[in-house]
Amino acid sequence: MKEKRLSLGWVELLRPKFFFFLSLFIFSKSPHHCICTDSSRFRSKRRPPELYWSLQPVRDTHEKQIQLWKELILDYCKAQKVFLIGVVEDFPLFSNSAIDRTLSHEARETFLSAIVGEGSAEWLDKGHRKCLILWHRIQDWADIILHFVKENGLEDSLMTVEEIRSGTESHGTKLQGIDRTILMRTLKLLENKGKLALFKRTSADDEGVKFSV
After folding, report:
1. pLDDT (0 to 100) of residue 18
2. Are 120 and 145 part of one and the same domain?
3. Fewest CB atoms less than 10 Å from the CB: which of 4, 49, 117, 207?
4. pTM above 0.90, yes or no
5. To 10 degrees, what angle do helices 180-192 and 138-151 make?
6. Regions of the chain with pLDDT less than 50
7. Beta bridge partners of 188
8. Is residue 182 packed enough to be buried (19+ CB in 10 Å), middle (13-18) or exposed (0-12)?
């Protein structure tokens, strides 16, 4: 009888972990675990298991939780062309009204810091209130710009910075709507490599770019 009670005790102890990993497994295998370009469909189809809305104390599950949220944030930002996340501001992924759950400030900072740690984001302030998301790294953006220049026959052309972001040639490309901070950093990288020259025009918002690819 004592042995039976002991075995039942182990069952009760392991039951919460069993259902936790079961929910994680089902979520990872779900056909809805995908990217949707429409933000509302993305939010409804790709959510972490309910237990993942609170920071997990167990090391293994905590690491899995961070990995899931890193992928989720980066995939969402890439699909929706989001470049900046404010930790204390509303962000679609950080709350789910259907189950009345919201990520704590600590959880938001933890997940974003993990993305910063792998080089796919940068904190813009010491207080960790604004995070610049680099779902393409600066070198990758440089390659995209060079491909854009060659594809459009702009090797020896003049353009403004704003034209690269919102001009006719950039419409429908990865460069359309690119964050200005990321764009300027990328252009300066290319300038250092001798691929272009930046020059001032009549205003700071109308800086010129002379390609020499």
Report:
1. 45
2. no
3. 4
4. no
5. 80
6. 2-11, 13-39, 41, 43-45
7. none
8. buried
